[in-house]
Amino acid sequence: MGLLLAVLLLAAAPRLAAADETPPPVIESKFELFVRTPAESSAFYALLGFSEVHAKPDGYTTLRSGSTVVALSPLPPWLPLHWVGFLRHPPLGTEIVLYKPDLEASRASLSAAGHSPSQIVLQPWGHRDFRVTDPDGYYIRVSEGRAVPTTASPLVRLHR
Q1: First to last CA, the chain
Q2: What pTM did the predictor assign?
Q3: How far is 135 from 6, CA to CA, in rounded Å?
Q4: String of b and e for 87-97 (b: at least 16 CB within 10 Å)?
């Protein structure tokens, strides 16, 4: 019995050690949006400071602003987006948050191009922001501040 227990513990040791190790960090990220017209979406995101860095003949377009990467993937014509578009609005959908130092200028450029950004509002958490939807209905919040505040309190871990 003792030998069997020793063999089982030795077999489990690599898994136990691996569970204690921190996984390697993510080295890059991008979010991919399925869009009807990549050129129209590209023009919208250009108003928020993105530049086209790669485009494929099928319309798949990659945009970058600083370390943020957005990919625009053409929707297949058979996909009935209007049937599921309601899922893109909070609280059910995804909220894309972009942090920029120039809220007034960003809002003005969107308005001048015919988009309808909300007013800039001071939120209860202390940051000003405005909201807008892109040409395909994705909900965008443009905020001042940082994704991770520099004055963040220590990480609190909740136990499951």
Answers
A1: 34
A2: 0.74
A3: 62
A4: ebeeeeeeeee
Per-residue pLDDT of 109-119, as tens digits, reads: 999 999 999 99
Amino acid letter for position 42: S
Report yes or no: 140 and 118 within 8 Å, Cβ to Cβ.
no
Residue 140 has pLDDT above 70, yes or no: yes
Domains with residue ranges and CATH for the chain: 31-76+92-143 (3.10.180.10)
| Residue 130 vs residues 65, 87, 111, 137: alpha-carbon distances, Å | 19, 20, 12, 15
Give dist(CA 137, CA 18) in Å, integer: 42
Cα dist. 148→14, 28, 52, 127 in Å?
A: 34, 17, 26, 12
Q: Helices in 21-102 by DSSP H: which ranges? A: 38-46, 81-84
Tell me the residue type at 145. G
Q: Is the dihedral of CA 116, 100, 153, 122 positive or negative?
A: negative
Q: How many CB atoms lie within 10 A of CB 142?
A: 24
Tens digit of each residue's pLDDT (9 = 90 or more) over 76-87: 777 666 666 666
